[in-house]
């Protein structure tokens, strides 16, 4: 199902489903095995050797142990890789486990123990680097300073676009050019593979918090990285060694979610356009952060649509944000994003609380994740809460 002539909508529905007819099933099979029979010691040993080395189980071998390989998760990974135009994808227990594995595999496990973080970044990523938990050094910089901040020992550049929560667009190819031969990881959570494919612009890794749009229903915590085969081996070695594996039931839910991802993304985006247009006209709103008004040329080339995240600045600052979030009825006041239902949260107080003050979003900003409800109902809810 990786035929390049198939439309991504078709790939989303069919990828990762090879061999189901031979198994006599139509729905994706769920393999919950924590351990697996070994055909004999020799082949068991060969399988263990391959899997702990980050490779696939050999033909006629065994999956050995659930921390090493799971076929249900592998099907999801194959489908995500097809959607990202990548050789492979590696799934993790969460988006932060995926970020951690990338830093460990490309920096901590090598001589290149410096990470360059291009701000703004998701609060968890920012504070993971700032906290220096992973035995690597870090520098933060803006998108135009990457070339200046690259060091001989830089092993990874981490960037995000559209960025959280201000929806800043960053030119992936421009950052890749500045990074030279240092691999660039793009957090593609907000855009999803439906709207943006970072590898096509020179990034080495495309990372997802699959908790968000890919799962899409607010019931899975997961992460994934799409990349080349060599990087996938390094990531799987770390995943096996540190145990940051995705549970097979979560892998199943994510794979099921992929089939509707393009449709959900387009419908949520249409709602977001309506909501953003309404908010731009509202006197209580000082600024709408929604990249449909992009002037950099990134929208329409790198990014195929503005997506379904909208942030707003409120004229009344923090107090207005407190009133607004508590008055909404359809929007749930909760962190996370990308699900079928609309959410609202205050980044400075919650998701970006631990980001250094100079990089933290303003106290007047609230972030909306636009869901699949009727756009008119969403606008009415916002109008009431702003009034
Ligand atoms: C949520 C999020 C993450 C972290 O993912 P988890 O699944 O919560 O660990 C990383 N990047 C972005 C942009 C996110 O929104």
TrEMBL record:
Residue ranges, annotated region (Disordered): 35-62
Domain of life of the native organism: Bacteria
Protein name: PLP-dependent transferase
Originating organism: Microbacterium horticulturae
Keyword check for Transferase: yes
GO MF: transferase activity
Family: Belongs to the trans-sulfuration enzymes family.
Known cofactor(s): pyridoxal 5'-phosphate
Pfam families: Cys_Met_Meta_PP
SUPFAM superfamilies recorded: PLP-dependent transferases (SSF53383)
Alphabetically ordered keywords of this record: Pyridoxal phosphate, Transferase
